[in-house]
Amino acid sequence: MRQRRTPFFALLTAVALSLSGCTSTAAAGQTRLRSSSGATRVTATPATAAAVYQQMRKSVTAGKSVHIKGVYADKGQKTRLDVAGDRAGMTMRLQVNFGTGLIEVIKVNDAFYLKADAGYWTRLTGSAATARSAADKYVKVPPGSAAGMGDFRVGALLDQVFAEDISTSDELNTKVQTTEVDGVPAYLLTTKVGGDAKLYVSVDGQARLLRAESAKGGTLDFTEWDSVASTSTPPAGQMAETPSL
What is the distance of C-alpha 184 from the center of its chain? Predict the structure, then answer.
């Protein structure tokens, strides 16, 4: 595979770069809002937005692994994302769909493996024969080419979640509401006038980030904190030779 910026690598790099604006279509699970007065009391004193936010930031920073899943829009492009891995980036499984088919990337230590359908490989190589041989199988990405795929560490994605819409607790409304995310009790933090970002944080004392949402960008759910299973090298029977591009 010649080392040049093909659409293949540009596309994958875009996954990481576009997340800088995705703390931002309420699409993923159900959220039920309750008034603070009717909610079960879970703290000795009422929590403030600043306190909940700072606790959540510490929790996110300390998190060793997480599963991020949702739908968001970047420059009008609707994208489905599903990524799980450790903060250091030694193990990761990413699935992304820009509307033209599912692309999957597995990272095991420093090795990347990519799987896509025949349509993807046809668009990339222009060869029907290559597309047939590579379709729906894992292709190992050469080290030199993998270096141009962008920062795919889950830790980098977590950092980008807070990069734009909510960078400090000063941007939040002071009132904290209580709600549920897929049945899990949560605090709801909202931005002040002019912003539409929302953060859902667990009320169990761990201050886990459960969801980041806005009308402009989309919704990302965060699960499996510190419990994501490690990825492994795909079996030989599921591998294909690296196409020559």
Answer: 20
The CATH number given to whatever domain includes residue 64 is: 2.50.20
Whether residue 240 is contained in a domain is answered as no
Most confident stretch, 20-29, 32-41, 214-223, 230-239:
230-239
21 pLDDT higher than 50:
no
Number of domains, the chain: 1
> Which residue type is seen at 183?
G
- Tens-place pLDDT, residues 223-237: 999 999 999 999 999
3-state secondary structure the chain: CCCCCCHHHHHHHHHHHHHHHCCCCCCCCCEEEECHHHCCCCCCCCCCHHHHHHHHHHHHHHCCEEEEEEEEEECCEEEEEEEEEECCCCEEEEEEECCCCEEEEEEECCEEEEECCHHHHHHHHCCHHHHHHHCCCEEEECHHHHCCCCCCCHHHHHHHHCCCCCCCHHHECCCCEEEEECCEEEEEEEECCCCCCEEEEECCCCCCEEEEEECCCEEEEEECCCCCCCCCCCCHHHEECCCCC
Whether this prediction's pTM lies above 0.85 is answered by no
Exposure of 17 in the CB half-sphere (CA atoms within 13 A): 10
Which tokens is 178 given?
A: 């209580």
Residue 212 tokens, joined: 């980041």
pLDDT digits (tens, 9 = 90+) for 115-126: 999 998 888 888
> Rounded to the nearest 5 degrees, what angle is found at the Cα of 128, between the Cα atoms of 126 and 130?
85
Inside any domain, residue 242: no
Domain containing 148 equals 7-233
Residue written as tokens 């909202």? 190
